[in-house]
Amino acid sequence: MNKMADRNAETEKIINLWVEGGSDFAYYEKADSADWVNGFWNEDSLFARNFSQLNTEFTLEIACGAGRHSERFIDNTKHIWLLDTSEAGLALAEKRLSPRSNFTTVHHPSGYGIPDIIQPESLTAVFSYDAMVHFEYDCVIAYVNDSYKALKPGGMALFHHSNYDKNPGGTIDQNPSWRNFMSQSFFKHIAKRAGFNVIGSYVFPWVNTEITDCLTLLKK
Fold this sequence. Notes:
Mean pLDDT: 91
Oligomer: single chain
Number of helices: 7
Number of domains: 1
Number of strands: 7
Largest sheet: 7 strands, mixed
Shape: globular
Radius of gyration: 16 Å
């Protein structure tokens, strides 16, 4: 959907972290720990309460990594598309979700927007957890715009994104928990410009007490 072929140096650096043998590929193992994943899926968590509002019949997960999140509901959906820039991460997701047949992995090396394999108005839900917090702002804009196009009318999107705006022009390795430049208000602006209604948006701390993260629920 998004035709941008080039990516800036910071996006290139972020993507290269997640290739097999990259400097932070081992993150997948840490992020797969039960304590880490359960923080998203415990029924009383902010994430689970908002996710329960999605119709997951036809779902896209943006930046799926090794598939740890889609695994949690794959048996209650007709089809899931798992999108990532990392071929190695997608290989782990395929291994994890096998032998199920109701998923498709999509390698998307540019990291900008949703590729054309996802048809317009074909999805009931889009979500991204624990990944968009690292994205460059232009990547965030591309994914939000393309999510609106990909969703059926009434479809919803749930995005876990950065709320850290204290270092404009800086890089993620300079920021707390590798959060990229973004804010709750800027994200809402992006979403409304794309055509979404903002159903809810919630800021919270991640590792320390600084309010670096935000979860935003959108509806087409």
